[in-house]
Amino acid sequence: MSSPDSRGLLAGPWYWRKALLWYALAAVIIASDLATKAWALASFEYAQPVEVTPFFDWLLLYNYGAAFSFLSDEGGWQRWFFSGIAFVVSCMLVVWLARIPPKQRWEPVALALILGGALGNLYDRLTLGYVVDFISLHYQQHRWPSFNIADSAICVGAVMLLIDLWRNKDDEPDA
After folding, report:
1. What's 10's DSSP letter?
2. CA dist 18 to 78, 109, 134, Å?
3. Which residue among 33, 73, 151, 174 is the active-site one?
4. Is 57 inside any structural domain?
5. Which range of residues forms the domain containing residue 38?
6. Would you say residue 7 lies in a domain?
7. Burial letters for 47-81: b for 16+ Cβ neighbours within 10 Å, e otherwise?
8. How are strands ordered across the β-sheet holding 142-143?
9. How many domains does the chain have?
């Protein structure tokens, strides 16, 4: 099925029924992310690590910025800036997922992970004003920035896209 406007952005084949599978995967990521964040908020004191292993803690923190708390010390404008970016990227991912041919698997899984993670963190930004982080990895005194399920899904999806790009680069003839 083609879109009504075959000249514009929405031109080309649309595989909405197949895309529903990828939207469902994104919904599972969102639900998992929100459920684990609710659990963390109910279970832990802010900024008080709970040791699980010598390198892994539960550590409830609020991230007012982006990845690695980038711009977290700004005056609040970043909440709306990052929310806007997440909204626009999510809309683009919804369209991208609908346009992927049904035979492809790797790319839509990657995009669904990124979509679910982006929407999970967007929900936090819009409802709380910050993103809830609670997973902390460390080695001795060196601590990786805390993160959550949404962040993990975004990172795994991004790595999958890079691998897919690298794999497909070998399949394309030189121009």
Report:
1. T
2. 35, 12, 34
3. 151
4. yes
5. 16-169
6. no
7. eebeeeeeeebbbbbbbbbbeebeeeeeeeebbee
8. 50-53, 56-63, 131-139, 142-143
9. 1
Residue 174 lies in a domain: no
Residue 89 to residue 105: CA distance in whole angstroms: 20
Q: Tell me which amino acid residue 47 is.
A: A
Q: Is 151 a catalytic residue?
A: yes
CB 107 within 8 A of CB 100: yes
pLDDT tens track of the chain, all 175 residues? 344 444 445 555 667 788 999 999 999 999 999 999 999 999 999 999 999 999 999 999 999 876 655 555 556 667 788 899 999 999 999 999 999 998 899 999 999 999 999 999 999 999 999 999 999 999 998 999 999 999 999 999 999 999 999 988 766 655 4
Looking at the domain assignment, is residue 1 inside a domain? Answer: no
Q: Residues in the chain, how many?
A: 175
What tokens does 21 get?
Answer: 């599978």
From the candidates 73, 133, 164, 170, give the one annotated as an active-site residue. 133
Longest dimension (CA), the chain: 59
Residues 6+ apart with CB under 8 A from 133: 59, 60, 61, 62, 63, 145, 146, 147, 148, 151
Q: CB–CB of 107/99 below 8 Å?
A: no
